[in-house]
Design brief:
Radius of gyration: 21 Å
Largest sheet: none
Number of strands: 0
Structural class: mainly alpha
């Protein structure tokens, strides 16, 4: 990873080349998009938003040219690339000036909210739109004899109901994952250990916890917001999950615990994802009220470090 980060920082040409190649590769290997966005974020964090923006524009035009030559259509690729890169450019710019992961994550949450709103602006009923888009997928499941024909419509309805929120939650998780990667690269090159200390202290403000409670009340029928409250709740769940992950790292770091505990947490995230994500999100939400890391530090005394 150090070699990759060093290559990005070698110059604008190298940054554009790497961002473009990884973005095109993500069409076959989706995780590559995280590395592509991290490259844009790294140059923005280190060299400023102007430098980062030129990398975004040149990389977008390069992707458009490659897509046109290869497939004869550039619009979908450039649209996806610019959405991905402009979002991470915004997050990196916010982090550069605020020097706060918590403030930056609130900005990214706002972007996620815009993703939900945009789905409503495209049509009055995003569920109906997704139901139509999922039709070929559910049909393929029937043809593969994985789902009975009698249950196909029910499956499509359930999936379409949750996809708008899942798209927004996945969006902010990808942006934050790319930003974390870029910040880690930056610390690796210029400030060893800096990202670890910064990530261990990630903590969202209590006002966001109050907003979360209000959204949960809306979900229970206090106000008729329909599925919109469900989608916002999924967005907030993703944010509290990240805080819960930071809490786990921070607490284990303060306790000097064996790294096997972190391996176990990530193991559960892979093999028991819904339950592990929910548990970490609940821990992160509780941390907004009780600030467990400060309480642990006070208990251990001022001489303890993370």
């Amino acid at each position: 990873m150090r070699a990759l980060a060093s290559l990005v920082m070698r110059g604008r040409f190298e940054a554009v080349m790497l961002a473009t190649v990884l973005a095109m590769l993500s069409l076959l290997l989706p995780p590559s998009s995280i590395l592509s966005s991290a490259a844009v974020a790294l140059v923005t964090l280190r060299n400023g938003p102007g430098y980062g923006f030129t990398v975004v524009i040149i990389s977008g035009l390069t992707c458009a040219g490659l897509a046109y030559v290869t497939w004869g259509a550039a619009t979908p690729v450039i649209g996806f690339s610019l959405l991905m890169w402009l979002s991470i450019w915004f997050a990196a710019t916010l982090l550069r000036y605020s020097r706060s992961l918590a403030i930056t994550m609130q900005g990214v949450l706002f972007l996620g909210l815009l993703v939900i709103v945009a789905q409503y602006l495209q049509g009055q009923d995003p569920v109906a739109q997704w139901r139509s888009l999922l039709e070929p997928f559910t049909q393929s499941l029937v043809e593969a004899q994985m789902v009975e024909e009698s249950r196909r419509q029910e499956l499509a309805e359930v999936m379409a109901r949750w996809v708008p929120g899942a798209v927004a939650a996945g969006f902010i998780l990808q942006v934050m994952a790319s930003l974390f990667m870029a910040r880690w690269w930056q610390a690796m090159l210029y400030n060893p250990g800096g990202f670890k200390a910064e990530f261990h202290q990630l903590r969202m403000p209590r006002i966001l916890a109050i907003i979360t409670l209000l959204v949960l009340l809306f979900q229970t029928g206090v106000a008729d917001l329909g599925a919109f409250a469900d989608y916002v709740a999924m967005l907030l769940l993703a944010a509290w999950f990240l805080q819960g992950l930071s809490l786990a790292h921070g607490v284990l770091g303060k306790l000097g615990a064996n790294s096997g505990w972190l391996v176990g947490i990530y193991f559960l995230l892979v093999f028991a994802m819904p339950h592990a994500v929910t548990a970490l999100a609940a821990a992160g939400f509780a941390d907004a009220w009780f600030d467990f890391r400060v309480r642990l530090q006070d208990k251990n005394g001022p001489g303890e470090t993370s």
